[in-house]
Design a protein that fits this description.
Shape: elongated
Number of domains: 2
Structural class: alpha/beta
Strand order of the largest sheet: 8-9-7-6-12-13-14
Distance between the termini: 55 Å
Number of strands: 14
CATH topology of the largest domain: Rossmann fold
Largest sheet: 7 strands, parallel
CATH superfamily of the largest domain: Methylesterase CheB, C-terminal domain
Order of helices and strands: EHEHEHEHEHEHEHEEEEHEHEHEH
Number of helices: 11
CATH architecture of the largest domain: 3-Layer(aba) Sandwich
Strand content: 15-25%
Length: 340
């Protein structure tokens, strides 16, 4: 067993899916499949026995399902888990629940014999396993610490833009959950597939008691509404005769992500100027950094998540030198309350 290889445990009740995942990963020289499991109970036992670096985890299994297995793994032997999700409403709901319980990330299962789809999954899974190997497991489960709410207001903000990627959904949920109702629009760009952003908005709507919705093209922006950028398309804004509208733009992204936070923050800087607040959360790469610079040029305020609380310290790191504040999630909420 080579020490430099990434040790992976593959968990799925389907023999064919286990075979497919193992086959997809075996083509990479730095990956070693150390075992497979047919259900969550086996997975928990094998994580303890084999000490894998990363686990790929299905959610629908007999004996013990993937969510329960994830909870047991994170409690007994914290290990980065990548969920295998279906392109269904139920699959999206379960996956988002898994992310809130400490799953590192997810991929959608191959849809069949389409070689392009399988190749895309192969590359995406490999990249996420490589990222997961570098993660300290204690970062994966957000330790909720209720923020202080009795703060004096400072500069009046007219709009908030949040850009988030890997590790971000639980942080976004936390921010909205603990933020009191404020009568300004909040725009969120969370990197996830199209079929997931609608479910993400529904989940946030239920859990945070805020009015959260997936944004629609050319809808007028209303105060007190939280708008989620739909997966696979950029969210921008336009001001027409003193009214502000959401515009969805189907263009190739600069940083390889779609939606990209840069589109949102650039538009916010132009429209809200010094009354705009940008928040850059955990994620790989530097999406949002270009828009963040423009926010700062227009005298708006920029908050970056701190390294200690970030699952992936890429996007916040790209803007930390120009940020007004570098904070953990509970302090981000406090600062938003203070400013808005």
């Amino acid at each position: 067993m080579s020490s430099h290889k990434i040790k992976v445990l593959v968990v799925d009740d389907s023999y064919l899916m286990r075979l497919l995942i193992c086959d997809l990963l075996s083509s990479f020289e730095d990956i070693e499949i150390v075992g497979t499991a047919r259900n969550g109970k086996e997975a928990v036992e094998l994580v303890s026995k084999l000490k894998p670096d990363v686990v790929t985890l299905d959610y629908e299994m007999p004996v013990m399902d993937g969510i329960k297995a994830l909870e047991e793994i994170m409690k007994k032997n914290p290990t980065p888990c990548i969920m295998l999700s279906a392109y269904t409403k139920e699959g999206a709901e379960i996956t988002l629940n898994a992310l809130s319980k400490g799953a590192f990330d997810f991929i959608t299962k191959p849809s069949g014999s389409l070689s392009m789809d399988i190749e895309k999954v192969r590359v995406e899974l490999y990249k996420k396993i490589k990222m997961a190997k570098k993660i300290s497991p204690e970062k994966l489960k957000l330790k909720e610490k209720e923020p202080h709410k009795k703060l004096k207001g400072a500069k009046k903000i007219s709009a908030i833009g949040i850009v988030s990627s890997t590790g971000g959904p639980p942080i976004v949920e936390y921010i909205l959950k603990y933020m009191p109702k404020i009568n300004i629009p909040i725009f969120i760009v969370q990197h996830m597939p199209r079929s997931f952003t609608f479910i993400f908005a529904e989940r946030l709507n239920k859990l945070t008691k805020k009015k959260v919705k997936e944004a629609r093209d050319r809808e007028q922006v209303k105060e007190g509404i939280v708008y989620i950028a739909p997966g696979g398309i950029h969210m921008s804004l336009k001001k027409i005769k003193e009214k502000i509208y959401i515009y969805l733009i189907d263009e190739e992204p600069k940083w390889g992500v779609k939606p990209s936070g840069d589109y949102l923050l650039n538009a916010m800087a132009d429209i809200y100027k010094d009354k705009s607040l940008a928040v850059i959360l955990t994620g790989m790469g530097k999406d949002g950094s270009e828009g963040a610079k423009k926010i700062k040029e227009k005298k708006g305020i920029l908050i970056a998540q701190d390294e200690k609380s970030s699952v992936i310290y890429g996007m916040p790191k790209a803007v930390k030198d120009i940020a007004d504040f570098v904070l953990p999630p509970n302090r981000i909420v406090e600062k938003i309350i203070e400013l808005a």
